What we know:
Elements: H1 2-6, H2 22-36, H3 40-48, H4 52-55, H5 72-76, H6 79-118, H7 122-154, H8 174-178, H9 181-187, H10 195-211, H11 221-228, H12 239-244, H13 247-257, H14 261-295, H15 301-325, H16 336-353, H17 370-381, H18 389-401, H19 405-425, H20 433-436, H21 439-444, H22 447-469
Amino acid sequence: MIATNLESKVQFPPRTEPPQTKHAKIVERTYHNNKDSDYTEKLKELGENFNYASNSNYYWSNPDLSLLYGTPLYDAVSPSQKLALNHLYWVGNYNHTAVSEATTSIYNMVTTGVFRAVGGYDTLCDELEFETEQESHHIRTFQRIGFKTKMAIVGKTILGNSLYGTTSKEDSSWVKRLTPQPIREFFVSSQGSSPYTIYRDSALSAIAKTMLGDKKQYYSQYLKDLDARGEPVPAPADGLGGRIAARHWLRFFTIHWGISPFMACQYYSLRYTANAILKNQEYPYVRYFRELEHKGEYIPTPTAVSNYHLLDEAFHTTISQTIAKDMYKDFPKPTAYEKFVAGQAIYMMQRNLLSGLSGVFPGRCVYDDPMLMVFFLKLLKSPLFGMETKEALNWMEQCFCQEHEGFNVALKYHASLLESMRKLFGRLDYQWQINREMGVMAAGGSISKALENNHKTFKEFSQTVLAQES
């Protein structure tokens, strides 16, 4: 019954001016300033004209934003290899940013549908739609520069992480041998979704729509259109979104962000996390750009892209902050259920996204996982280094599992991001205390914990690699 009502046509109220609250004025001013100072065309031009050879002999940032910076291997490599590691750091950072901005574009459309249905937020919706347009140009610029750079430095060697795709622990496990075939087929399918995943996703969707049934009139037109086409609720597998939670949980959260006005606002506290992570790593590029500009020195194209991108993204960050900490108060206070879901989403974000340090990717406030190790193994075996597997693993063990300067650099970036996160989440009265204080993230800012995690992860990783080559 609820699903049927949700699919019914919502009659949007006529366009009206937003209420003249302080935050409505901030939104209106931000929208007009963003339109007036749009750097999208500049970024598009830089991306289209990028030539790696013209930028290959320059650092694109200060050296500390380089892969493997501060590790024993970094100290041993040649000046040209250090330049390449600096360039590949930019590529890795902005490849991640491109995927995350694609996710942002989807959720902008999900939440815009809610705010349009509420009425009175036309300027905000116009801003979110304009941001989505900007993101599409940003993404293409990052991808062009990233692809040309990777091809010039390592060729196709590290375009993908297929190492783990060739074996399956389950194939030889005692669980499979002892589990009856019908039960295995219920939980695991080699062709699309298994019966279990279909039932699980349907159940989570039903829970969300039942608990938010009194807000069905705000159901996002974007999600309604997906329903009409028989398409699933979006859930990213990559980027920041893919790290936050498993896809079935992301679909569950998305339904909430696409029905409840309060939850749509709560999503922007999550979007602010992406804004803050980006600024934490991007602002050093801006400082470097300004130093080069002041000295009258050559400015590499990627450094200029970072500078102009942050100028665009500053408006996006303002919107995230304004919706997350002020606009949610326009609506009725959240129910106990909405508070629970909002708390769970941010807790998962802390646990899965911001609960560690990386000593090989400074500025990355995420623990080092097997997929990152796959990347570095391929990098060390690429033409840039030309190592054999055992030599590469030996260097990786020193970089991942021994304390070095890279971890101290990581702590600096972690502390800066933690401060930004607490400034926003500390103001959200509906959030759990551990989320307001960013308790999980704070606990992850430990070199000893990072090393402990890396020892375990690297041991399993190296055993898998050597077993495949034997």
